[in-house]
Amino acid sequence: MSEPLLSIESVSHEFGARRALLPGRRSHLAVDDVSLTIAAGESVALVGESGSGKTTLGRVVAKLLTPTAGTVRVEGRDIGALRGRDQLAYRRTVQMIFQNTQHAFNPRRRIRDILSDPYEIHGLPTPGGRDAALGELLERVGLHPSMLGRYPHQFSGGQRQRIGIARALSLSPRLIVADEPVSALDVSVQAQVLNLFARLRRELGLSLLFISHDLRAVYFLCERIAVLYQGRLVEVAPRERLLESPLHPYSRRLIAAVPGLGERDSAATGLAEATGDAPEAAPDRGESTAAAVAGAEPSPALATGCHYAARCPLHVRLGRPERCLTERPVLRTAAGGSAVACHFAEAAEGTAGTPSPPGSHVSVVSEEVG
Amino acid sequence: MSAVAVVAATADGPRVRRGWKLLVGGGLLGLLALFMLVGPLVSGYDPNATDLDARFSGPSAEHWFGTDDLGRDLFTRMAVGGRMTMLIAVGTVALASAIAVPLGLLTGYLGGWVDLAVMRVVDLFFAIPTLLVAIGIVGIFGPSFTTTMLALGLAFWPFYARLVRSAVVGVRDLAYTDAARVIGAGRWRIIRKEIVPALLPLLIVQTTVLLGFAVLDEAGLGFLGLGVQPPDASWGSLLAQSRGFVLSHPWIGVIAGVPILLVVLGINIMADVLRDRLDPQGAST
Predict the structure, then answer these.
(1) Is B209 buried (19+), middle (13-18) or exposed (0-12) by CB count in 10 A?
(2) Residue B279 — pLDDT band, cuts 50, 70, 90?
(3) Contact A93, A26 (CB under 8 A)
(4) Smallest CA–CA separation between B43 and chain A, in Å?
(5) pLDDT tens by residue, B38-85
(6) Of the candidates A74, A65, A64, the residue with the CA atom closest to the CA atom of residue A36
(7) A6-222: which CATH architecture?
(8) Which domain holds residue B151?
């Protein structure tokens, strides 16, 4: 059990990497050197604003994308090397659920045919007959077996997502990658589907890589939370730890942006950041900090320094230390089981309670780090 | 007609009333089919039998469509020629489909350099008018029934292949093909179970449309004297013959031309009906 079920090791994915050799083509580094592990039975959330690379990482884990660098290991085996029979076995271990329930099913096929696919492809035994197995599958996700003859468009979004879950469950996976499984659903339906996830985890001991930007859903379902910012992991922490005392300035801002969840933090980080500066709202270049910090345009291609420095309130408060611009912060362990990629995370925690002039903190920080 | 019955069962969109189109299109094609199939039996003439005493006789009780310069019965010749034209059209479309559908599937699904290479060839064909390509091929092999079919088939496939390819690209990136991959479906299973069914409406409609074009272009080739050669008759070659007498006996041209018009009209109406039934979103072809 010491070995994690899933281990993502320094995975990077660059879109258009091959084409970038030609002049005039730009590549985009969607995932940048991410390492993360999920233990058997554990549920880990991947959060971040849109474009942060969380879906890309999920697709890499589900082997829909081959990462341009790094390896993904499931049960200790490098999934990139799997072919044929081994790959099928891997498919039975890791399954994926998609965000868009409208397009996740072939509209021309009945639910019976769609759900029969895994049985046909993997030659799964169905002792009581195929229909009985499919009916049981539907019941397990809270649908009625009589719905087998219907087409996908005859279901509501929530029901379709249940079918998506049923399709994934048919192979009895150990890990499910759920790519924003509830964000396209009505709020009332979201709760039902989240409850279904929670129940299935309890009953089946599933591991979950839950990709979401909805921190409430994440808090409900996951033990650990990993925060992505522009392809880099900025903080990984146990659920309570992250929500109550986030270490990375970006995590703080992310949490502060959720009304009701981050009141404590919004008081600490300042009202301006909590409201006007919600993570998805602000274009990078429009910010005064970005304009003020010369040579630190926020760009994922920026190899040196912290990619968040240009938007970072802590960076400004600390008097714009050189280190943020020259040295890329690595993910390091911090107090309370967290891991954070920020040179001055502890300083942020120190200022959290009592806002005070930034000058007094610089010395403290340099002592700690230096 | 049978195609409609087959696919109507799978059409799941709102069914708008298009009864008159089906009636007109189906009726037109049905009548023409009847004419081609039983026409020669009813008229009782041999299509190649000459009767020099009855040259250029206008439409009459004896010769319903009149006779040509050698006194051959035009009704019979049009019916027999229609068979030939339809045979060429069907063969053309079959050949074009046999090349274009697999190629379109392959290039669309695989992408990469295969796609690049095939599509550049297609671009090449795009730069030359269809009929010119066909004329070139006839020029190489000499005019005959088979060459006409071959020439038109080879001239038609690029358009069709590109259409299939772009449709495949559209389906390939939909989430449900990803879902199939995650489940463990291989390449061929995805093409067979997810992509081809999504293309079927397009294929059926496009095949029908091409049939109309094939009839027209057969007539075009025939008119240029590059189609079926005498004494065999096709609509194109009959039209070509009528050209010589267009001033003295203009009705021959009318009789040779109108069935082409009607067939193409009927086919296009049927293509329209099929498109409406198969594609509730109303995308154009």
Answers:
(1) buried
(2) low
(3) no
(4) 49
(5) 887 777 777 777 777 777 777 777 777 777 777 788 788 888 888 888
(6) A74
(7) 3-Layer(aba) Sandwich (3.40)
(8) 2-278
**C-alpha Rg value of chain A to the nearest Å:** 22
Q: Indicate the pTM of the whole model.
A: 0.73
Task: Give the DSSP H/E element, type plus range, for residue A175.
Answer: strand A175-179
User: Looking at residue A72, what DSSP letter applies?
Assistant: E
- Higher pLDDT pick, A17 / B114: B114
Q: Is A9 helix (H, G, I), strand (E, B) or coil?
A: strand
How many structural domains compose chain B? 1
Asked if residue B283 belongs to a domain, the reply is: no
Q: Which residues of chain B have a CB within 8 Å of the CB of A153?
A: 12
Inter-chain touch B189–A96, beta carbons under 8 Å: no
Strand partners, A270: none
Cβ pair B39, B45 in contact under 8 A: no
Closest CA to A112 of A92, A76, A91, A138: A138
Show the low-confidence residues of chain A (pLDDT under 50): 1, 20, 263-302, 351-370
CA distance A153 to B75: 53
Nearest CB to A117 within list B10, B178, B183: B183
End-to-end CA distance of chain B: give it in Å, rounded. Answer: 20
Edge-to-edge, what's the strand order for the sheet holding A28-38?
Answer: A28-38, A6-15, A69-74, A77-78
Residue B164 C-alpha, separation from nearest chain A C-alpha, in angstroms: 18
Q: Say if residues A314 and A324 touch (Cβ distance below 8 Å).
A: no
- Residue B81 covered by a domain: yes
Helices B19-43 and B250-278, interaxial angle, to 10°? 140
> At B19, which CATH number?
1.10.3720.10
Give yes or no for a contact between A138 and A166, defined as CB atoms under 8 angstroms apart.
Answer: yes
Task: State both tokens at B118.
Answer: 């095939």
d(CA B255, CA B60): 13
Decide: helix, strand or coil at residue A78. Answer: strand
How does DSSP classify residue A152?
A: G
User: Which ranges in chain A belong to alpha helices (H)?
Assistant: 54-61, 84-93, 111-122, 130-140, 157-169, 187-204, 215-221, 239-244, 249-256, 263-269, 271-275, 288-292, 313-317, 323-326, 345-353, 359-369
Q: Report the C-alpha gap between B27 and B98 in whole angstroms.
A: 29
Rounded-to-integer distance, Cα B162 and Cα B107, Å: 9
A137 vs B contacts (CB less than 8 Å)? none
* Chain A interface includes B175 (CB < 8 A): yes
Whether B103 is covered by a domain: the verdict is yes
Beta carbons of A216 and A248 less than 8 angstroms apart: no
d(CA B102, CA B148): 23
The question of ipTM being above 0.85 is answered as no
As given in the structure block, the two tokens for residue A202 are 């309890």
User: What are the chain A neighbours of B191 within 8 Å (beta carbons)?
Assistant: none
- Which segments of chain A belong to CATH 3.40.50.300? 6-222
Q: What's the Rg (C-alpha) of chain B?
A: 22
B166 lies in some domain: yes
Q: B126-153 as b/e, with b when 16 or more CB fall inside 10 Å?
A: eeeebbebbbebbeeeebebebbbbbbb
The answer for A70, left when phi > 0, alpha when psi is -120 to 50, beta otherwise, is: left
